Give the backbone structure.
Amino acid sequence: MSTATLSAPRTVTAVPYGTGSGLLLTPAEPGAGLDGVDTAELLGLLGTAGFLLLRGFGAGMDSFTALVQRASTSTTLDPARDFYSEVAQKVDAGYDEVGLHTENGNSPFRSHLAWFFCEKAAASGSQTTVCDGHRVWDALSEPARAAFAAQDIVYSRYVAEPQWRAMAHHLLDRPAEEIGVGELVRLAAAMPGTEVEPQEDGGVRYAFRTPAADATLFGTRPAFANSILGPSNNYETPRITFADGTEFGAGLLDEVREVSGALTENLEWADGDVALIDNTRVMHGRRAITDPDRTIYNALSYIERPER
């Protein structure tokens, strides 16, 4: 009898989804739920695909929450959204189209993973969009790649006191009212590329410096994954410049919009679907909501960085 180590049985079946490397996952065994999904297998597929759509697992809020917790070392949040489980927050950014972005990408708190659970799919339109930053970087012109490779970009904006206190409460695990702004300044100083300046009204103004295209969670290949085109729901719109303070030229932004738009794909939701996105590689957004009964939740988490 061979002593070779046998491969673990597959818990999901994977087929291509969309025009890139995304995958649609269904149960390997009929009727299996999310509790039967092997998280190492799931993350291995994510490293190749960039995004996964899980369908047919009979997902509910409890099983979605449990999967996020099993697959992750920790979770994070958007302090402006309400919680519906230990990890899930409702996607409630109005009804307009939402531009491509990485979750929390305009701050030092970008998560490794972005998760979505569709409790009720829209009857029409309202799709979540995804765009692979590997494909965008490869498709940009040489002058555009040179411009973004030459220097980092900087996001800067004002954050009101209740908002920074909510985030500090989560990060420090202490009552928000007990946290002084000086602690936030010291916390920011430990985060590469981050500066926080207290304001007279109790709010703060921060600046966050980061590459527009960088290596990802799973590899060293550059991905144009950022929040240059993204929304600012619940917050002041950030000012976004190159690190030397110069603005992006109109032609440069037009090219980014054109290239990323051509490579944007729709996630066509069905009730009970779960999506998992590598938030360091794949940007996401949303088509305009045409069915207000659509109900989607998201969660943000971190994992141990795989060996490259």
Observations:
- The CA atoms of residues 55 and 278 lie 18 Å apart.
- The first helix runs from residue 39 to 49.
- Helices lie at 39-49, 61-71, 133-139, 142-150, 161-172, 181-189, 250-262.
